[in-house]
Amino acid sequence: MGEIIKPMDIEKESFRIISEELGETNLGEKELLVLKRVIHTTADFEYKNNLKFNHNPVEKGIELLKNGCVIVTDTTMALSGISKPALKKGGNDAYCFISDDDVISEAKERGITRAQVAMEKAAKINKPLIIAVGNAPTALIKLDELMKENKIKPELIIACPVGFVNVVESKELILNHNIASIVAKGRKGGSNVAAAIINAMLYQAFER
Amino acid sequence: MGEIIKPMDIEKESFRIISEELGETNLGEKELLVLKRVIHTTADFEYKNNLKFNHNPVEKGIELLKNGCVIVTDTTMALSGISKPALKKGGNDAYCFISDDDVISEAKERGITRAQVAMEKAAKINKPLIIAVGNAPTALIKLDELMKENKIKPELIIACPVGFVNVVESKELILNHNIASIVAKGRKGGSNVAAAIINAMLYQAFER
Asked: Does ipTM top 0.90?
């Protein structure tokens, strides 16, 4: 391995390779940076076709992050993947309620998922809200319910749970709402993808 | 969405679908459960061809986890994705050193990546060791160096960084060692994949 590229140049070179292999897209510059970061995180070019941007979500997300908002993720992994230094620059907060004691006990009592209860907890936040779901379709299904009941109104939804059951359908539910969203259509997604999407907006909002 | 499957049955049904679509493999039962959990985490059947098991790593991993070992991950995301209740059942510990103050300052001083310094820190652990790399090829490259210098001797290596630069090569380095390993060949991998592999072994070691 005599030709190892210097660590600090790896990301730059990675994005060059991604741009080259990606070819033409019909995305704007801001969306394209989100797509490239998702591919950087997954090495999966299927996102070129799967990742859908609805109601100008990237510009909206960047504005939200610049002005200070609250991000709620469905998993601690997604939360853990979000760049904390960049997050703090805009005075943003990020939470995941899935492992909170009250969420765990309430989910057990009611026989529903912790992701569902965690989404109800998110509905109590009175600040501009980004919901980022990378794992639990039940979180999106609950979010759809809460939105229909006017109990929550996120400014932006990142909808990319991964999996084989309820996942595709849960994403379609989100697309029915007149709300800015970034949706990984189909089965693919993940906590890493949700975090990458948030980070791609953070890096556009703030110098790294 | 009138036919939503109950949350608790989602995983079971997901694994049924995965088994059906996966078809025949030449893997043993224990390895197969690891592969299926990786596909469950990524919805990506490419791992059927990419995921390589060397020197009986799954049986070894299960034994290590049953008897108490230390897992070191390269990212907080991978650490965060490991099932903590299962981990504790065997008296195992898991660490990620990437955000430790001493690692950050030493990496800056020496002009190398935090992942490299974190791997040197892992080398100081005097317990049976599983190294799980889901992100940083430089962690694997450093690990290869340390192994050649007899400064570290992990019992098991999970090698699945993701990306476009140094990644494929860093995985090949690990395959040259006579050590149990699970390697996601090629560009794909991720912190989620590393965590899924650990969890698949934990779930085989302990009742959930």
From this structure: yes
